[in-house]
Specification:
The structure holds two protein chains of two kinds. Chain A is built from 13 helices and twelve strands. By secondary structure, chain A is an alpha/beta fold. The longest helix of chain A is centred in the middle third of the chain and has 18 residues. Chain B is an all-alpha fold. The chains are: A alpha/beta, B mainly alpha.
């Protein structure tokens, strides 16, 4: 296997709050290769967005701080950068050009006072020596590539003049305009209608193949993950709780939390008389009031006083590239079969 | 756009009508009798009655208003009871003095206030931010008459660097074109005149600029802070944009709309006459003309002045509203 594009090792991100310092991300490791899609799944507050912002160097400081760990990025030019320590200039050169990001809400993520064309042109000209006119031509090409109808006219539209789907396409056009090698997509389809959502997912997969990008896709929706993931990393309360190739996550689920997420996806043809859709009881714990032992035990049907409430489980290898953070995974597997 | 403008001009007419009603009736219910004021205490009843008849003051008030309106529509506000000039002419002579002062003060306020707001707003709670915001707090709460007098005492009196009042040195005047001494001096092309006109403008402009400057700095700061945390700013950073450009292009531009509102409101206020500043520095501007006219019951001048001020105020507001459209496409196209 070739060298990965991005390696995150033992990343920890702290936030200083009123009640003291909390660890929003507590020791997460993963890697992404060119042409690969890693989906990070988790509920709100699981640390998935903070992880992506850490890669971009966009953690708001203060109150946030990368307290330890490494983020190694292998740039196109051949150099390797540790993004946790890169200076502002290096980060500016990488952002937009080599690592691009698309955000959840394309209405607020685009500046309302500039046309989408202006915003794409701006990105292009930050990183490439292009005239305004040449950049405009490229912007129209990008919009066409993203399937925006009538791109020569839409390029002069303001964000509020476009539908949600078109705005997100414009946002993606902007992110991909400099042909990045890594794309981070933070819930890019959450704010969209289901049909538009499917179109956008398809588009991202297609462009990924065309441009052979590495993609980190962040979502709370395992259904979305199933459509595009090569590998899936499930986060809970700032930690990896299960990570595996996509197929293994769905067919050989180990962590009770992952199973809970899977069971709570509605499926076509479900028996309506079988009762309501299962949910995971409770909510993600407040980061400043983390339970002792396994962070998930208060919500886990399989939890036992010993060892779950006492000892924080380690990440264990359970199969080929499949790791899980559960002290009782063997017993649970026996119980389930 | 045309429809919008026509609508706004219709509003302007309505506002002016309202102002004319209020001003006219207020002037007429105020205590004090114009005829007595004009003729003095020793006038006979017959003389007073004759003057009242001559001025139309013996007519019912609604009739008086009707005639007033008829004349105003022809641009005739009557003669000033003190100067014997046309009332509107007096107002138009005083206005350039105020206009020049207001524009100079506002220019100072914007040129200094906006950068101060940016500097403070991009370093929230830093030492510089705290210093600047404390300074602007003094600025907004400064009594103008006190500040003006202190500046006058220091720079005009003790140090003797700047003149203590008036528009130009006695006997030295540029040929009157606009009525604004600086502009007229520039037109005359004589460096000495330009220098003097600026020297005379400095103290009053600085005095008058203090409050708007502090307000503009504070509103710019708070808007920079509010806009700085929005998602599109994070997008701009995610594109690899240098921080300085993020601030100018993606934060400041969006923060300017409320700043423009404040600038417009301040300009309207400043143009309606800075009574205190004009009094301290003996400037024959609109504010002083209005106060003097009110005190001497020179109602034609008061009416002309009030309507003129209302006109200018509404006009400034219209310009501000059009500026919104330039700054924010969401307003422009709706």
């Amino acid at each position: 296997m070739t060298r990965p594009l991005l390696e995150v090792r033992d990343l920890c991100v702290d936030f200083a709050g009123e009640t003291g310092v909390v660890a929003a991300v507590a020791g997460v490791s993963f890697s992404v290769s060119r042409g690969e899609t890693l989906v990070i799944v988790g509920e709100s507050g699981s640390g998935k967005s903070v992880t992506s912002l850490a890669i971009m160097g966009l953690i708001p400081k203060p109150p946030g701080r990368i307290s330890s760990g490494e983020i190694l990025f292998h740039a196109r030019g051949g150099g390797t950068h540790n993004l946790t320590r890169a200076d502002a200039r290096t980060m500016q050169q990488l952002r937009g050009a080599e690592i691009a990001m698309i955000f959840q809400e394309p209405m607020s993520a685009l500046n309302p006072v500039y046309t989408i064309g202006d915003q794409i042109i701006e990105t292009l000209r930050l990183h490439e020596p292009l005239s305004r006119r040449a950049a405009r031509v490229r912007a129209i090409e990008m919009l066409a590539l993203l399937g925006v109808p009538d791109p020569a006219r839409r390029v002069d539209a303001y964000p509020h003049e476009l539908s949600g789907g078109l705005r997100q396409r414009a946002m993606i056009a902007m992110a991909l305009s400099c042909n990045p090698s890594l794309l981070i997509a933070d819930e890019p389809t959450t704010a969209l209608d289901v049909t538009v959502q499917a179109q956008i997912l398809e588009l991202i997969s297609k462009l990924q193949r065309q441009l052979s990008m590495g993609v980190i896709f962040i979502t709370h929706n395992l259904g979305v993950a199933a459509e595009i993931a090569d590998r899936i990393l499930v986060m809970y309360a700032g930690q990896t709780v299960e990570a595996a190739p996509a197929r293994a996550i769905f067919e050989d689920t180990r962590m009770p939390y992952t199973r809970g997420l899977l069971n709570s996806i509605p499926r076509l043809g479900m028996d309506r008389d079988a009762g309501p859709l299962p949910t995971i009881p409770g909510i993600v714990p407040n980061l400043s009031e983390m339970p002792a032992g396994c962070a998930f035990h208060p919500r886990c049907a399989h939890a036992r006083p010993e060892p779950c409430t006492v000892r924080r489980p380690d990440l264990e290898q359970v199969g080929d590239q499949h790791v899980v953070r559960c002290a009782r995974w063997r017993e649970i597997a026996r119980e389930m079969s | 756009m045309t429809r919008y403008l026509v609508g706004r001009i219709g509003q302007l007419v309505l506002v002016l009508f309202g102002v004319s009603v209020i001003v006219f009736f207020t002037m007429h219910v105020l205590p004090g009798d114009v005829a007595t004021l004009l003729l003095g205490e020793r006038a006979t009843l017959a003389q007073l009655a004759s003057l009242r008849h001559q001025l139309g003051l013996d007519q019912p008030i609604f009739i008086q208003y009707f005639y007033f309106l008829l004349q105003v529509l022809q641009g005739d506000f009557g003669m000033s009871l003190r100067s014997n000039h046309a009332a509107l002419a007096d107002v138009l002579v005083a206005f350039p003095v105020t206009l020049q002062l207001a524009l100079a003060a506002l220019a100072l306020a914007v040129v200094i206030g906006v950068p101060v707001g940016i500097i403070a707003g991009t370093r929230p709670s830093g030492l510089l931010d705290n210093l600047l915001m404390t300074a602007t707090l003094f600025g907004v709460s400064m009594p103008i008459f006190w500040l003006g007098l202190m500046l006058l005492l220091l720079f005009g009196g003790l140090l003797g660097w700047l003149p203590i009042g008036g528009l130009m040195p006695t006997g030295l005047d540029a040929p009157r074109v606009t009525g604004m001494t600086v502009i007229d001096s520039l037109i005359s092309g004589r460096p000495h005149l330009i220098w003097e006109s600026l020297r005379y403008l400095t103290l009053p402009a600085v005095t008058l600029a203090t409050i708007p400057l502090a307000m503009i700095a504070r509103i710019t700061r708070s808007e920079m802070l509010a806009m700085g945390s929005l998602d599109h700013v994070r997008t701009a950073r995610a594109k690899g944009m240098p921080e300085r450009r993020v601030i100018l292009r993606h934060i400041l531009r969006n923060a300017l709309i409320p700043v423009v509102t404040v600038i417009g409101l301040q300009l309207g206020l400043l143009l309606s006459g800075a009574v205190l500043t004009e009094t301290i520095f003996s400037l024959p501007g609109l504010g002083r003309l209005m106060v003097d006219s009110i005190l001497s019951r020179d109602y034609p001048v008061v009416q002309a002045g009030a309507l003129f001020i209302a006109f200018v105020f509404v006009l400034v507001n219209l310009v501000v509203d059009l500026t919104y459209g330039l700054l924010d496409p969401r307003i422009r196209r709706s």
